[in-house]
């Protein structure tokens, strides 16, 4: 969710976009299943209903995606995975201040926090985030024998990963755990192994996500969201972001939005009108991701099958 990633440099992304300029619209594929699924649904629906040619560029560099939308040159036109509050800093900069990017009115609800497997919750009694701030409890999650637990906090460069580094410190468990910032596929493999062997596992979770359809996961209880205890300083704006951030509560209500370059309203007004009407169901998004990851079904096929099965929804998006 949610997210900002640093997988490609601006130069590398710019190079990958060269062939996309001939298309009517360009969208990024961030290479994680939920966002890939939504992107493909938007792409297939727009191509079917409006006859557009939509190109995609593969990148996990969300700040670069926003910078490309900000330039309004067709490098990136639509970013369908704007998680709030995670990407609030980017929204403030480009939507509120510069007004170079717009945020579609509709959104769908998401959830994020720490998850454990059912056996971790029921057998080992890890039910609250405060349970992690105990060295004996932390050892339950020790996979490499170094005396510390292992907890996944997100992929490298995700905005939420920076937040989780601060939360681990301020919740008091950072010293007892190895904070793992690895590719999500690695985390999913570790979770899969733990679930199959009834072993403890803990990590950052967000939903919609295929793992909620695949495993019995439970969110750990946390103190309710408190804006005074959820102070995030953006890493791209202050080198002392970690020291200045203070986070010791749950996330605020999380929503996922479509963002698009402001110039798209002039270039593709019918598409923008559809983007403003689009509404996604979190359960559908989890199922799409499950089909992509577990069933190994190509994302474009998942999208086209859903569109074929839901003509009324698509028709409403495009004002038919």
TrEMBL record:
<keyword id="KW-0732">Signal</keyword>
<protein>
    <submittedName>
        <fullName>Glycine betaine ABC transporter substrate-binding protein</fullName>
    </submittedName>
</protein>
<feature type="domain" description="ABC-type glycine betaine transport system substrate-binding">
    <location>
        <begin position="24"/>
        <end position="308"/>
    </location>
</feature>
<feature type="signal peptide">
    <location>
        <begin position="1"/>
        <end position="22"/>
    </location>
</feature>
<dbReference type="InterPro" id="IPR007210">
    <property type="entry name" value="ABC_Gly_betaine_transp_sub-bd"/>
</dbReference>
<dbReference type="Pfam" id="PF04069">
    <property type="entry name" value="OpuAC"/>
</dbReference>
